[in-house]
Amino acid sequence: MSDPMRIRAAENNGVVDVKILMKHDMESGQRKDAAGKIIPAWFITTVNVKAQGKDVFTADLGSAVSKDPFLNFKYKGAKGDKIVVSWVDTRGDKRTDETTAA
């Protein structure tokens, strides 16, 4: 399993600002290793964020996204909202982490 995501969420005047750093190598499938063989594609395909059990952000990513992607978005919410971030990659690996809006 991959390293935990770093998730920060701060509420200001009814808007929650969410920042997510996901640890993932995000291989595009276009690079070659030292022996000249193509490194297989391996990247996050889907990201879903729920706040208080409701979807607030969904993204479909592709091979062009850099290693250790960073996402930042805002939604109407409140201090204390439970935020759950999940992703799935091309190998079927999954990661879910959560935080509470401050």
From TrEMBL:
Pfam families from the UniProt entry: SoxZ
SUPFAM superfamilies: E set domains
Coiled coil: none
Gene3D superfamilies: Immunoglobulins (2.60.40.10)
Alphabetical list of InterPro entries matching this protein: Ig-like_fold (IPR013783), Ig_E-set (IPR014756), SoxZ (IPR030995), SoxZ_dom (IPR014880)
Domain Sulphur oxidation protein SoxZ residue range list: 7-99
Protein's name in the database: Sulfur compound chelating protein SoxZ
Organism: Polynucleobacter meluiroseus
Lineage: Bacteria, Pseudomonadati, Pseudomonadota, Betaproteobacteria, Burkholderiales
